[in-house]
Predict the 3D structure of the following.
Amino acid sequence: MGVVHRLYFACRPLIPHRVRIVARRLRAKRILARNQDVWPIDPCSQEPPAAWRGWPEGKKFAFVLTHDVERSAGLSRVYEVMKMEESLGFRSSFNFVPEGDYSTPVGLRQSLERRGFEVGVHDLKHDGKLYYSRNRFRRNASRINSYLKTWNAVGFRSGFMHHNLEWLHDLDVFYDSSTFDSDVFEPQPDGVRTIFPFWCTGTPGRSGYAELPCTLPQDSTLFLILQERTIAIWKQKLDWVAEHGGMGLLNVHPDYMCFSGAPKPGTEFPAELYRQFLSYVKERYTGLYWQALPRQVAAFCRQQLCPREGPETDPQPGFLSGKAIITVVALSNIMDPLLTAACDCL
Ligand SMILES: [Zn+2]
């Protein structure tokens, strides 16, 4: 992690959320303008792995739902997300932050598992410092491993989608899902350029794991940063993934979902949009997709791509004052290299 990134994450708690959102929107406009050939669709990511023989039961594509629960607001909405998905016949995984601003009730984890959902680990503290240094990552990995064991979890996703596939071997995971095929808005924007899962082979003493890239744009990117008002981009991307027989993997944050009343500008979007997307998939692709938990995809990936390795178990507009906006724009112009790098982490 570079010096600017470190500096930014040290100062991040002091930067008002609204300022961060406005900076991200300004930056996103620039990024979008110069990356339309690779986002939301990167044509180079459509080829399956060499040994790929298709999805279980001859399904056309896989559809995988995941959720990162960032803060206590998200925790309080988990049941509502579960109910929505259950009512439409879907199941998903919920990733919880072990040492964040909330504690995950045992009863909630048990309830999720009883009802066919999955529980995973999301970062350690969610402070952007997980990858500060190799030694720090090793220490963090030890703590993360203890939570994985206690929670009987096999999956992981880093905060801010930070990733280092080599270092991730330190975790006792069956799969990681901190990468993406193409997401030019992320702080670490190097996509893995595939819409298929792949196997990260282990070495002596270090087990391999499946990498499950996110292949559908995150809710926060679409609705909070790009200020989309419809699910058109989700549909466009999923149709393309389905056409090429890939894996549609989505990360939606309960923290940002508004289930009643008006969404808070800049921090929430209508949960109804998520319902619309699930309904779209269900109706348009009836019988054609494998709706699987991430750990099931990981097991399938291992079986297909590395059968000798791995564990046995399947395991809103106008909310800043004009003065504040001018300040952000001016900073952007004057301090572009520094601010751009810092915004990359927002
Ligand atoms: Zn997160």
Q: What stands out?
A: The CA atoms of residues 36 and 42 lie 9 Å apart. The pocket of zinc ion is lined by residues 68, 70, 122, 126, 159 (CB under 6 Å). DSSP finds twelve helices and eleven strands in the chain. The domain at 3-345 is CATH 3.20.20.370 (TIM Barrel).
